[in-house]
Amino acid sequence: xxxxxxxxxxxxxxxxxxxxxxxxxxxxxxxxxxxxxxxxxxxxxxxxxxxxxxxxxxxxxxxxxxxxxxxx
Length: 72
Prior knowledge:
This protein is α+β, with helices and mostly antiparallel strands.
């Protein structure tokens, strides 16, 4: 699933709300469904992306500190 700006006026699969052209939305490529910002699926995906970014940053910082401490 990807966060995109809507290329066309569309309708949210979950809530039925209208999504205006250019509005940020979540697009599921497999099922070709689109979800608006107020939908639960959008919010869950946004939280998951934020969490994975945080974890990746922590892992990178740990690795950088490990390399500095061990002269790698």
